[in-house]
């Protein structure tokens, strides 16, 4: 495997990690807010808080990791995406800032305030929408590069494009689906029957829209970027596998059986689709201006980054394991028998 | 708006300084407070003193709120680097991606263990287990300051790269981390962060004592924080001196601009205060003979390079002199306050906790420490203008060409105002609604109700 492919695979994996844990986080924030307007807050509030509080900071790091890493391995991305993304990027930062800060104010402050809940619940749904514009832009057609290398972002074109809106729709719907599927598992572990019933309904309700909007994006690509679509068809088995994983996951939740396994299938469902999409996109990072072979970082820097990455993982994996053991898989904690804040 | 005509370089600079200026307040707290929490918890366990343990616990609770703002503004500046300085990041990605990457690892490490630490206060039989969880937090937070300062040191004094025709052609990833600016910058940043946090926490204790809440808990807090502050201020003064010597050798233009030193001379005097006229005459300044030579080279007869020997289009703005002087004045005041407290503690312990003037001065020291950090960073950053990478890339070449930077500036300014107001309100409410006395009574700590 060349350094370029290795580099992009590592980064793509981090983005996938972010997709899963940020979705759980964003969706949970929204459900927490939604349940308070519908008067079901007392049912699901506890399990959501118990899960989110120790992990919210970690979620953010996955994103930072991705964008620091991509500039390290592919310095030209900073130039193209940096110039093009000033507006959507800044909006995403502001939303992330509001969400992160108000989450902490709300849960570590003395009492929960409806206004704070609204801020972090609502911003959580807009963040995936604004971040997904990066993926949309990478398909090409929304930025213009003139002969001197000056990059112009065609904001109106992005705004008017049906493709970009299908991506936004998919982002929002999948956030709610992934999150509800996870919370169903977590509520079952917490033996919290009331919460379980509520989040299970959310999970089932969002499953059909998820698969429909995935199909929508799939076909939107065919008209927007036929070249990419063709390569995705060559990898059709991955999307079929994704669909099968979806069926298994929903079946398990429907029958209330093996919910841990069900969430593993949710991850596989998105994993197959995400890697299939990514592999089809190669070698382009930004179609058609930038491929992974353009101005890849120098070899010593690539080796340096990869070595640091491996060393870092040796530190992180045991730490993450500890975090999960203490808060995700510790039955007493999950069931609320330990509150040591 | 501010200028006639839209200038993305100007607005990018303003927006970056706004974000950084806001972020460093919380970043400094993020670096220093874990160390103070660790000190308090360690003393608490070693002496089996519940007051110190409660101190650690209450500090940690307030700390999370500031961490949240630090994390989100840190994410903001991380992304803004690429959004506002795309051409610079293209070069930085080639040369200093490694420390940037390591910074994220340190942050990751800290994030994981902070989450664990906060939720496991009474979970372990052996209290030291909980204390050990804090060590990765301290290492992670200081580590991220360490690595990100390495990036900044590289911008001040790039090494480990070969430049040909304005392009970086050959890179040594680890070599680029060992900039000559690195040792002084990194240590100065770390120690002053510890110092600032010691003063901030001391001011909280002093405030309570001044309000007549004279529980021994506050006295212990004041003693711990002020003794730490005294140690850190001596350390930061010594490192500050080394930073001056570094500047003389590697960035003479910055030192000359700070000191309004125009002619290259031996036995150079140090100018304190004063104003600069249009034709570079210094008025009303206090001249301290030989002091600049001593500051620069540790020798009163040493030659110090003046601005006249540096091409005019590479001169930093001369107003940084004012910043440097006010910073040094703040340092002098803080040193005095810390020293007086130490003398009181030694000669007349009771007075150290009761003297109204002492307590008031300690409360003043906290905002002064934060201001010193801001002044220091601004003079250090502005002092390397016109370069974004000294000798390689000018700031104007690094900035984005996007339109709308001005609109983003307004949006971010609003965001920071709202965050600043809420964070202060949340913190005040948090500690007012649950006083230390009430918590001691709750936790059945002896002396909980005693006056």
TrEMBL record, chain A:
Q: Name one Pfam family in it.
A: Cyt_bd_oxida_II
What keywords tag this UniProt record?
Cell membrane, Membrane, Oxidoreductase, Transmembrane, Transmembrane helix
EC code:
1.10.3.-
Q: How does it sit in the membrane?
A: Multi-pass membrane protein
Where would you say this protein principally sits, based on its record?
A: membrane
Q: Give its localization.
A: Cell membrane
Q: What class of enzyme is it?
A: oxidoreductase
Any one Gene Ontology MF annotation carried by this entry is: oxidoreductase activity
Question: What transmembrane ranges does the database entry give?
Answer: 12-34, 55-74, 80-105, 117-143, 163-183, 203-223, 235-254, 261-280, 300-323
Tell me the protein family, please.
Answer: Belongs to the cytochrome ubiquinol oxidase subunit 2 family.
State what protein this is by name: Cytochrome d ubiquinol oxidase subunit II
Species of origin reads Paenibacillus spongiae
UniProtKB/TrEMBL annotation, chain B:
> Keywords, A to Z?
Cell membrane, Electron transport, Heme, Iron, Membrane, Metal-binding, Transmembrane, Transmembrane helix, Transport
Which coarse location class describes where this protein primarily resides?
membrane
- Topology in membrane: Multi-pass membrane protein
Name the domain of life.
Bacteria
Q: Which InterPro entries does the protein's record reference?
A: Cyt-d_ubiquinol_oxidase_su_1
Membrane-crossing ranges are 20-43, 63-84, 96-119, 131-155, 186-209, 221-240, 328-346, 358-379, 408-428
The reply to whether S-adenosyl-L-methionine figures as a keyword in the UniProt entry is: no
Cellular compartments annotated: Cell membrane
Provide the family line.
Answer: Belongs to the cytochrome ubiquinol oxidase subunit 1 family.
Name of the protein in its database record: Cytochrome ubiquinol oxidase subunit I
């Amino acid at each position: 495997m060349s350094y370029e492919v290795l580099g992009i695979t590592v980064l793509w994996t981090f983005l996938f990690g972010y997709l899963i844990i940020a979705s759980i986080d964003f969706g949970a924030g929204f459900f927490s807010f939604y349940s308070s307007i519908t008067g079901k807050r007392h049912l699901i509030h506890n399990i959501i808080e118990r899960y989110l509080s120790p992990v919210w900071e970690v979620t953010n790091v996955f994103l930072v990791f991705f964008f620091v890493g991509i500039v390290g391995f592919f310095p030209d991305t900073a130039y193209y995406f940096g110039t093009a993304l000033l507006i959507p990027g800044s909006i995403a930062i502001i939303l992330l800032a509001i969400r992160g800060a108000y989450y902490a104010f709300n849960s570590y402050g003395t009492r929960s305030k409806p206004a704070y809940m609204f801020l972090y619940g609502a911003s959580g749904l807009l963040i995936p929408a604004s971040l997904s514009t990066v993926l949309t832009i990478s398909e090409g057609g929304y930025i213009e590069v003139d002969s001197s290398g000056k990059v112009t972002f065609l904001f109106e074109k992005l705004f008017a494009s049906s493709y970009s809106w299908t991506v936004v729709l998919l982002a929002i719907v999948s956030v709610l689906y992934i999150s509800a599927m996870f919370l169903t598992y977590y509520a079952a572990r917490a033996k919290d029957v009331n919460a379980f019933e509520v989040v299970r309904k959310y999970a089932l309700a969002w499953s059909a829209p998820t698969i429909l909007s995935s199909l929508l994006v799939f076909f939107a690509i065919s008209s927007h970027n036929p070249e990419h679509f063709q390569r995705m068809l060559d990898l059709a088995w991955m999307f079929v596998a994704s669909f099968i994983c979806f069926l298994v996951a929903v079946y398990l939740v429907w029958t209330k059986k093996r919910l841990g396994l069900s969430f593993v299938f949710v991850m596989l469902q998105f994993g197959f689709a995400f890697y299939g999409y990514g592999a089809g996109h190669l070698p382009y990072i930004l179609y058609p201006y930038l491929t992974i072979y353009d101005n890849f970082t120098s070899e010593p820097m690539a080796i340096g980054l990869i070595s640091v990455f491996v060393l870092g993982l040796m530190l992180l994996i045991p730490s993450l394991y500890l975090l999960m053991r203490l808060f995700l898989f510790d039955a007493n904690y999950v069931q609320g028998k330990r509150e040591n804040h | 708006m501010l200028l006639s005509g839209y200038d993305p370089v100007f607005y990018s600079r303003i927006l970056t300084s706004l974000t950084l200026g806001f972020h460093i307040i919380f970043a400094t707290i993020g670096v220093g407070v874990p160390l103070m929490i660790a000190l308090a918890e360690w003393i608490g366990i070693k002496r089996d003193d519940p007051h110190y343990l409660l101190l650690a616990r209450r500090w940690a609770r307030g700390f999370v709120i500031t961490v949240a703002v630090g994390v989100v503004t840190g994410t903001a500046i991380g992304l803004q680097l690429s959004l506002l300085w795309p051409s610079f990041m293209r070069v930085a990605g080639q040369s200093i991606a490694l420390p940037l990457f390591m910074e994220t690892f340190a942050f990751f490490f800290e994030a994981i263990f902070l989450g664990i630490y906060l939720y496991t206060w009474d979970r372990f039989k052996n209290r030291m287990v909980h204390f050990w969880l804090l060590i990765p937090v301290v290492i992670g937070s200081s580590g991220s300051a360490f690595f990100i300062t390495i990036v900044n040191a590289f911008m001040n004094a790039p090494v480990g790269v070969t430049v040909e025709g304005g392009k970086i052609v050959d890179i040594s990833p680890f070599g680029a981390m060992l900039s000559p600016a690195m040792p002084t910058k990194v240590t100065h940043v770390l120690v002053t962060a510890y110092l600032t946090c010691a003063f901030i926490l001391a001011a909280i204790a002093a405030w309570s004592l001044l309000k007549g809440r004279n529980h021994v808990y506050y006295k212990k807090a004041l003693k711990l924080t002020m003794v730490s502050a005294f140690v850190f201020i001596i350390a930061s003064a010594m490192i500050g001196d080394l930073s001056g010597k570094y500047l003389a050798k590697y960035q003479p233009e910055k030192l000359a601009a700070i000191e309004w030193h125009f002619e290259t001379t031996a036995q150079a005097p140090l100018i304190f205060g004063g104003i600069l006229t249009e034709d570079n005459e210094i008025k009303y300044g206090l001249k301290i003979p030989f002091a600049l030579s001593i500051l620069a080279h540790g020798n009163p007869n040493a030659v110090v390079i003046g601005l006249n020997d540096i091409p005019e289009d590479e001169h930093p703005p001369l107003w940084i002199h004012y910043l440097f002087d006010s910073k040094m004045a703040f340092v002098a005041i803080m040193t005095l306050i810390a020293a007086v407290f130490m003398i009181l503690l030694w000669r007349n312990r009771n007075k150290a906790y009761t003297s109204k003037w002492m307590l008031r001065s300690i409360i003043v020291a906290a905002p002064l420490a934060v201001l010193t950090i801001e002044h220091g960073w601004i003079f250090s950053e502005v002092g390397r203008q016109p370069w974004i990478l000294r000798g390689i890339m000018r700031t104007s070449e690094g900035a984005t060409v996007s339109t709308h930077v001005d609109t983003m500036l307004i949006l971010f300014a609003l965001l920071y105002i709202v965050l600043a107001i809420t964070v202060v309100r949340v913190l005040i409410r948090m500690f007012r609604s649950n006083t230390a006395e009430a918590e001691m009574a709750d936790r059945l700590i002896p002396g909980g109700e005693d006056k």
